[in-house]
Amino acid sequence: MHTTQRSSHPLLSVDGITKSFFGVRVLHGVSFELWPGEALGLVGENGSGKSTSMNILGGVHQPDGGRMSIAGLLYAPQSPREAGRAGIAFIHQELNLFPNLSIEENLFITDFPKRGGVPFIDRGWVRRRARELLAEVDLDLPPTRLVGNLAQGERQLVEIAKALHADAKVLILDEPTTSLTRREVERLFAIVNRLKSRGVGIIFISHALEDVMHVCERVTVLRDGAVVGTDLRERLSLPAIISMMVGRSIDAIFPERDTKPREEVALRVRNLTQRGVANDVSFDIRAGEVVGLSGLMGSGRSELARLIFGLDPMESGTIEVAGTRLMRPSPKASMAAGLAFLTEDRRNEGLLMDASIVDNIGLTFLKRFKAGPGLINGKALNTTAGELARMVHLSTDRVQDTLAKHLSGGNQQKVVIAKWLLRRPKVFILDEPTRGIDVGAKQEVYRIINRLVEEGGAVFLISSEIEEVMGLSDRILTINKGEITGSFERSRFDREAILAAAMAPVGPKREATA
Amino acid sequence: MNSRNRITILLLQAAPYLLFLAILLVFGSLSDRFLSLANFTNIVIQAAPVAILAIGMTFVLLTAEIDLSVGAIMYLTGCILGLYLGGVPWPVGLAVVLIASALLGAVNGVLVAYLGITSFIATLGTLFIGRGIAMSVSNTASVYFPEAITSLNRAAVFGIPSAIVAVAVVFVIAWVLLQQTPFGRQVYAVGQDRDAATKAGLPARRIVFFCFVISGALAGMAGFVSSTQIGAITASYGLQAEFSAIAAAVLGGTSLFGGRGGVKGALFGALLIQTAANGLVIINANPYIYPLVTAGIIFIAVAVDGLRSRMLERLERRFIRPWEIA
């Protein structure tokens, strides 16, 4: 473990920061300290004030009250630029890179070194400095490579290299692990640890509490715009953090389900094969059953779901929904047969951000509300949308005039779920249904899942959080490299065994995962 | 990616060049005058004004904006040159034209970058205003240029015709500006993602503003070169020049959505269009089919670009079992 070097002043001290937007107070005196060489985890539900606090720290907003200091000196940035000059680097969840430019151009886009007095870029210097910076973040790539050709984890390291170039003393990482593979996460942690040993202070904001506990020495929990508590990692546990976050103790994160799976098979997949994607996949899901699919990143989880739903072509195999075989799998045929598919990318595939909740729920299934040739029964649509909104516990019942973009991430997800529920699906494929939403909203999604299966629906649950799969499923299938490598009944659930099965080697030996 | 896909993509990528080759072969086989050095010199000279316009337009397109006023700027600065600068030496005339056109570009820049008016509407407005002023100062009559200007058409530097020199100078400066200066790289950044550029601390508004200034100044330059070639301008001068410029830039691979492309493409696009037009003249084709041929070329180029993007997107899908894919 890393030891924290205590100097006389904290690297960064935030003291009693308050902030209101349009007369609504969102921060009620946030205080915390960051010491050189430590990582401080900052956790809280969506809307707890993490983003506002960090935006104030990063110079995006100015506080109404309170004070901040860096190494004992007053710090009051008026713009992101000033924050950068003071040594604060903010790496947003949505990376601030330009895919059409090379790595080196991205590194120096704001302050290209010029050659002598002439206004030309000193390409030689840029190349050398870029190599140095990339070496510091262990990124072995040519600096001329286009950022658009990099993987997500590599792009994040480029952002960190950029912060190193700016000589950042405080590095704020906002949800840095969400879109990374496990291997990329390991690499990120190694770099974070290296930066800590150099005296850089890290603020690590994340919903992935395991990651926070893994990399941070201390954790600060925010709730409703105030700090609930700060403590050393050793003195905290996941349940303790979660109960601090939600303000009530959660004895069971995963709500109990009363019903058992029924006899009839809702989804039958046999010998599903598509070269390069899936090999001889067979399984059943019964009505009233939740089957979880567990696999590492890149194991082919989402790809399998896309094949089943007909989004990608398949070479051979059969798919039956409630006893009816899908002759020519396509999304349209799947939906008609009673399949629903919540994709992992709700922003791009699920929601119209500028449309109302009603429109988002009803638009893809307007024929249910036909009032005559070419006419829509708006009243019926509004009533049904309202019912669905209540069923998924949407935060607002103003379904006609609330736009999707004004909802929180968790509520947006509920709208997408409601949209599919309108079709009364027999089998619901959920791909990462709780990614990026807070603990409270997660629990509500879990309740919706329970309600679905209690009413006889079948759920195929894909999640990278193994706790989630174990907490909700009646049965777990493991997948690796597009092959099913294990099946576990609920009574035999065991974290290590499931993980081992998910890593079981498949395919030719040279391709086996280590 | 297997070898068949790779070849398809290479073919699609090379499509504009193959198109160029096809045009050369078709017209070359129809007329023995077409494939000659004299004719190619002629093509470059004829293409010079559109090439210069397209180079300026590239700057604006790279920032994901559009400039519809370049034809009007050509006409208005042409009127200023012909009506008020008849007696001055041509370098003074050129300087005044460049300053005036840069100022007109600056008006566009202020409207778009600082007042936040959509560039399509803002430059449509300056198009009508510019043409209106030009028509009122010239009383819509023809404006003639003095011998001092028109003689430039026959001038040459080391035996290279002046129009070609003008294109070469503009091209080299524009290329260096885009590729070798911080400003140029920042133009690409702003065009890719305006918000991200602002967040990164780039002066996005100023960059967009200067791209309009450059586009305006090069419209003046293009007008000047074309004035030397035609000797007199009428109220229809420069009409639809903006569309030729946009077509040339897009044909050369510059995206209308910003961030992708460059001035090499603009030059190539202008030459491609002019080569086809020249070929049609040489084989004595019906003049009414010229626009149809130009339109056909543009449609092919854009369709091929779309096809290529979609194919690349499909191929970038990750395979879980890569050993099964040859």
What report would you give on this structure?
The complex is a heterodimer of chains A (about 525) and B (about 325). Chain A is of the alpha/beta class. Chain A has helices at about 50-55, 80-85, 105, 125-135, 150-165, 180-195, 210-215, 240-245, 300-310, 330-335, 345-350, 355-360, 380-390, 410-420, 440-455, 465-470, 495-500, and strands spanning about 10-20, 25-35, 40-45, 65-70, 75, 90, 170-175, 200-205, 220-225, 225-230, 265-275, 280-285, 290-295, 315-320, 325, 340, 370, 375, 425-430, 460, 475-480, 485-490. In chain A, the strands form 5 sheets. Chain A has a 6-stranded mixed β-sheet with strand order 6-7-8-3-9-10, with helices on both faces. A 6-stranded mixed β-sheet of chain A has the order 16-19-20-13-21-22, sandwiched between helices. Chain A has a 4-stranded antiparallel β-sheet with strand order 2-1-4-5, with helices on one face. In chain A, helix 13 crosses helix 14 (about 410-420). Chain A starts with 11 loop residues before the first strand and ends in a 12-residue tail after the last helix. Mean pLDDT of chain A is about 85; it is low at about 1-5 and about 510-514. Chain B is mainly α and about 325 residues long. Chain B has a domain at about 50-270. Helix content of chain B is about 75%, strand content about 0%. Classes of the chains: A alpha/beta (about 525), B mainly alpha (about 325). The interface between A and B is medium-sized, with 34 and 28 residues.
